[in-house]
Design a protein that fits this description.
Blueprint: H1 3-15, H2 19-32, H3 37-49, H4 53-64, H5 71-83, H6 87-93, H7 97-101, H8 105-117, H9 121-133, H10 139-151, H11 155-168, H12 173-182, H13 192-199, H14 207-222, H15 226-243, H16 248-261, E1 279-285, H17 291-298, E2 304-305, H18 312-321, H19 331-336, H20 342-353, E3 362-366, H21 374-380, E4 386-390, H22 393-401, H23 415-435, E5 440-444, H24 445-450, H25 452-462, H26 509-514
Parallel strand pairs: 1-3, 1-4, 2-3, 4-5
Helix pairs in contact: 1-2, 2-3, 3-4, 4-5, 5-6, 5-8, 8-9, 9-10, 10-11, 11-12, 12-14, 13-14, 14-15, 16-23, 18-20, 20-21, 22-23
């Protein structure tokens, strides 16, 4: 068969689900046409579909060296590479000269999204602005551009961009919620009437519907109408719980399996020589526990870069277990953990992340859910300091309940699931403290905001860093921030987050009772 025929047959086999036959055709095609990036990327997808993550990664990485002057194909390749954990290769794609030349506005918007995923929010905004100048425009694009403006600290411009988004897409609930969170609402200036009008038009049970309810909650809480605020919050969470059910029993089994595998001898660290170059500092804990505040404070140290939430460690765990998937854990990963090579895991992680240091000696990896993988972190990177952000049980659970994480952290949409998740988390953290004593420093959120200097002295000492008074105020940290705390962490340290749940003490009684033994 000629090359065209091989390509057509491969596509047909993929459509029919015959991935083995498709792989054969694609490999035959690439023997003839080794620079055919479209065929190589399809082969990468076929390998992933057959459960072979390493082979899929290898094919995608091989495509980088032969990328043509095609902005759409560059975007596709870069996005695939990022999704499978080949971060440095994805970044290499983004340096292709064609990106600076292209007039393809839709491709520029996709490429901007890749920069956003890589944490390069300034670069993302540059490409978004080019796409906009070339005429690319729709509500979703305006919303993501508003987020980039917010992440880069340009809050007034972000608000204006959200207004444009809502003119184009009146049922864009996430835009309304983002706007409500940008400032405190007042009796004479709030979006409640606007939300009521938009709620009448939105698809019932959709995520936008839930987002409008979360926005209504935020506005009503700002106005002191706490009973009405709770009704809106409960409604939004009920919608999200129906859309994204959480399996607490499955989670408990996964956490227990992780603890059984990760014994003291298993997590005892790598025996490979120490890797030279900048070293990571891990910040972990439950989402909304104060991890962003700690990162912003620590990131003010002259020796520390703060690139934000890096997905690389979980992705490299999957590469080392050759288990393709999007979840943090699954049965295949757990089945293969006993054979994981800690030194290889550490090398792979550093290869993908050290560029974030930007010439500094340390860089922060602040991915809260890495608490599940803390033993593997120590096994792979025994020199890496680990900081665990601790917040009072009801405070942190309520903060999760009012967050709206989309399709992530599904436990957060039910008070019962929240209580179960908190128990699973505390049990696993107790296990890590037992099998690797002294490795993880607990950092109490309440202490951090009331005795910032005392806590930061302990944090810096744990990281092997000299004290620096810059680390007492996050305001001077100019790096972009892309978490839900993007607005408030640009302020000085404050205690507003302490006890926010008390306005809803009655409604939260079941949660408080379930967590009473942790108080």
């Amino acid at each position: 068969m000629n090359s065209q025929r091989l390509w057509q047959r491969a596509q047909l086999h993929v459509a029919e689900g015959r991935l083995d036959a498709a792989e054969g055709n694609l490999r035959a095609l690439l023997e003839r046409e080794p620079r055919d990036v479209a065929a190589r990327m399809l082969l990468s997808s076929v390998c992933l579909g057959r459960g072979r993550l390493r082979d899929g990664c290898a094919e995608a990485v091989a495509a980088v060296a032969v990328l043509p002057d095609d902005a759409e194909l560059i975007a596709t390749t870069a996005m695939c590479l990022f999704r499978v954990g080949e971060t440095t290769a994805a970044r290499q794609c983004m340096l292709h000269a064609e990106i600076g030349r292209t007039q393809n506005a839709a491709a520029l918007a996709r490429l901007a999204h890749v920069w956003q995923l890589l944490g390069e929010h300034g670069q993302a905004l540059v490409l978004m602005d080019r796409a906009l100048a070339l005429g690319f425009d729709n509500p979703e694009f305006r919303y993501f551009r508003a987020l980039q403006l917010q992440f880069n600290g340009r809050l007034d411009e972000a608000a204006r961009e959200i207004a444009t988004c809502l003119r184009q897409g009146p049922t864009h609930g996430r835009a309304t919620l983002t706007l409500a969170r940008l400032r405190r609402q007042s009796a004479d200036r709030n979006p409640l009437a606007d939300i009521a009008q938009r709620l009448a038009e939105v698809e019932r049970g959709s995520e936008d519907h839930a987002a409008f309810e979360f926005a209504r909650y935020k506005s009503l809480e700002d106005l002191g109408r706490f009973d009405d605020a709770w009704t809106a919050l409960a409604s939004g969470n009920a919608i999200m719980a129906a859309r994204n059910p959480h399996d607490s029993q499955l989670e408990a089994g996964q956490f227990e399996a992780m603890a059984r595998i990760c014994t003291a001898s298993f997590v005892g660290g790598s025996t490979s020589p120490s890797r030279q170059g900048p070293q990571p500092i891990f910040i972990l804990g439950l989402p909304r526990s104060g991890t962003t505040l700690l990162e912003r404070l620590l990131g003010r140290h002259p020796q520390v870069a703060s690139p934000g939430e890096l997905p690389d460690f979980p992705r490299q765990v999957r590469w080392c277990t050759d288990a393709h998937g999007a979840a943090l854990l699954d049965s295949r990963v757990l089945e293969r953990l006993n054979d994981i090579d800690g030194a290889e895991l550490g090398r792979r992680y550093l290869d993908q992340t050290q560029w974030h240091a930007l010439g500094r000696s340390f860089y922060i990896d602040k991915l809260p859910t890495n608490f599940v993988l803390a033993g593997l972190i120590h096994k792979a990177l025994p020199r890496a300091p680990i900081l665990h952000m601790v917040r009072s049980p009801v405070d942190v659970c309520f903060s999760n309940y009012r967050a709206l994480f989309g399709d992530a952290h599904n436990y957060s949409y039910s008070l019962d699931a929240l209580a179960h998740h908190y128990r699973h988390y505390r049990k696993l953290m107790a296990h890590w403290a037992t099998v690797m004593p002294g490795v993880i420093l607990d950092v109490d959120y309440a202490a951090l905001v009331t005795d910032t200097e005392g806590v930061m002295r302990r944090v810096l000492a744990h990281c092997g860093l000299p004290f620096d008074a810059l680390c007492l105020d996050p305001v001077g940290n100019e790096t972009p921030v892309s978490t839900l705390s993007a607005a408030q962490v640009r302020e000085s340290v404050n205690q507003r987050g302490l006890g926010a749940w008390r306005h809803y003490a009655g409604q939260l009684a079941p949660l408080r009772e379930a967590l009473a033994d942790f108080a």
